[in-house]
Structure to design on (482 residues):
């Protein structure tokens, strides 16, 4: 019997998702046992042409991590969509834009000017910028051209499931992969299309073990400014925690360790915009009815946009900054 | 054709919507640019409503609630009062003029005030011009997309 095929791809991502998959420890052996690896650039030398040569629908499961920010990302997203029966957006970048999505605060030119010009570690007196096409003696070589706007995978191709997280937690990956193997082995029905796998529908706060009382905040502090009480809700201590606007499933590990939630699991069910939800959450905890005092308390939040949309700007209602 | 701003007004049921009604029954004239949405309380206005309106073609959003202290749910308008400045700051950081979002308190007896606010706000948005948002939808045929997939991998797998 031929084994079902598995593909894993990285688009605009850091590679952490691939490592998180390997991090499921000995369960990776069951994966290798059950699946035939069709494509996984991070761990073995596959070529795009090998994938292109497959029949449409030949790959049973594709875990696609990374956002879409150049034509190569997009081309491979389209290619893998055609070749796969089930396409999963794997990790924050693929599902919500993730950290690369924050490039939507700027445009390509601004980013290039900084990275290849102004950044303190750059010396580039001749203003050498990456070019899509370069002539060399052997001919022309091409590198993918970066776009102004970062997109999420579901915005550019049809996606079956989403597995959120930056990266998705290994125990959750192991559970999802185990469930997929079980479904395929025993001919069970797949979950409905669009299901978010490896996470809960509720917020991160739902899993947080810290004690919650009435939240009344007069002042926000940054984590390094105080030694937080180990058992009390961080927000109650004035630390800006994005937990109320973030999907659970991670086990609230950061919060347990005293670091506020940064929002990597994306939006909880039935919420459309992480920043909007966060504004609502903050508005309920600020203890003031005086517009001037409210203004002062709010002004002390260093970077609301980057904090509330750290992982979901590309998927937010307004998508990108208007520059 | 001259620019007619599209404005979404979100009015609380108990004071502002009644105030707007009063302006209507008293036959006070104000620009027809505002489409009003009635909510039970200004505290119901999730900032997501505002972003959604702007993302779907509104040029400005006006929110009206009971005067502070008069909210029928006691605290709702204080919540709104705390939400709007932060929402405006997000808009500003997104490169959208924060004046496109305005919060006003209008009581049930202030038909005249409502008329004045809507008129002023409409003129302000008219002066700001249409809100143009870029890249709201992915365009398969984007001009900065180089050749790749069309040539089925020829370019793709060369490296
Ligand atoms: S009822 Fe009018 S603002 Fe709450």
């Amino acid at each position: 019997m031929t084994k079902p095929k598995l593909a894993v791809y990285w688009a605009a991502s850091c590679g952490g998702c691939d490592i998180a998959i390997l991090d499921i420890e000995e369960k990776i052996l069951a994966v290798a046992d059950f699946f035939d690896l069709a494509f996984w650039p991070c761990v073995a030398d596959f070529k795009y042409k090998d994938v292109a040569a497959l029949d449409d629908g030949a790959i049973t499961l594709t875990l696609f991590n990374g956002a879409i920010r150049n034509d190569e990302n997009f081309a491979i997203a389209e290619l893998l969509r055609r070749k796969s029966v089930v396409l999963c957006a794997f990790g924050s970048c693929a599902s919500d834009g993730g950290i690369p999505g924050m490039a939507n605060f700027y445009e390509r030119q601004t980013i290039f000017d900084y990275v290849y010009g102004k950044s303190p570690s750059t010396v580039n007196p001749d203003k050498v910028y990456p070019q899509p096409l370069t002539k060399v003696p052997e001919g022309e070589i091409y590198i993918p051209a970066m776009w102004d706007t970062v997109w999420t995978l579901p915005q550019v191709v049809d996606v079956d499931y989403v597995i959120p997280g930056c990266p998705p937690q290994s125990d959750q990956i192991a559970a999802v992969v185990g469930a997929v193997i079980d479904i395929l082995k025993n001919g069970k029905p797949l979950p409905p299309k669009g299901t978010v796998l490896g996470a809960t529908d509720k917020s991160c706060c739902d899993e947080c073990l810290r004690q919650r009382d009435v939240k009344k905040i007069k002042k926000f502090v940054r984590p390094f400014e105080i030694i937080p009480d180990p058992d009390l809700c961080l927000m109650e201590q004035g630390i800006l925690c994005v937990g109320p606007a973030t999907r659970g499933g991670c086990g609230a590990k950061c919060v347990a360790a005293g670091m506020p939630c940064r929002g990597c699991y994306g939006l909880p069910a039935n919420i459309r915009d992480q920043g909007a939800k966060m504004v609502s959450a903050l508005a309920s905890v600020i203890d003031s009815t005086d517009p001037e005092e409210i203004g002062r308390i709010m002004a002390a939040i260093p970077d609301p946009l980057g904090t509330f949309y750290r992982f979901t700007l590309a998927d937010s209602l307004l998508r990108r900054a208007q520059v | 054709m001259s620019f007619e701003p599209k404005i979404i007004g979100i009015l609380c049921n108990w004071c502002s919507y009644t105030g707007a009604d009063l302006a209507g029954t008293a036959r006070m004239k104000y620009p027809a640019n505002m489409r009003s949405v009635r909510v039970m309380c200004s505290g119901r206005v999730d900032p997501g409503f505002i972003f959604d309106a702007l993302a779907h073609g509104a040029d400005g959003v006006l929110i009206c609630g009971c005067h502070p202290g008069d909210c029928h749910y006691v605290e709702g308008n204080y919540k709104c009062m705390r939400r709007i400045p932060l929402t405006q700051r997000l808009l500003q950081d997104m490169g959208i003029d924060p004046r496109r979002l305005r919060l006003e308190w209008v009581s049930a007896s202030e038909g005249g005030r409502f008329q004045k606010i809507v008129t002023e706000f409409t003129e302000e948005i008219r002066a700001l011009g249409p809100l143009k948002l870029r890249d709201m939808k992915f365009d398969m045929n984007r001009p900065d997309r180089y050749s790749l997939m069309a040539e089925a991998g020829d370019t793709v797998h060369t490296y």
About this structure: Strands of chain B lie at 7-12, 34-39, 60-65, 101-105.
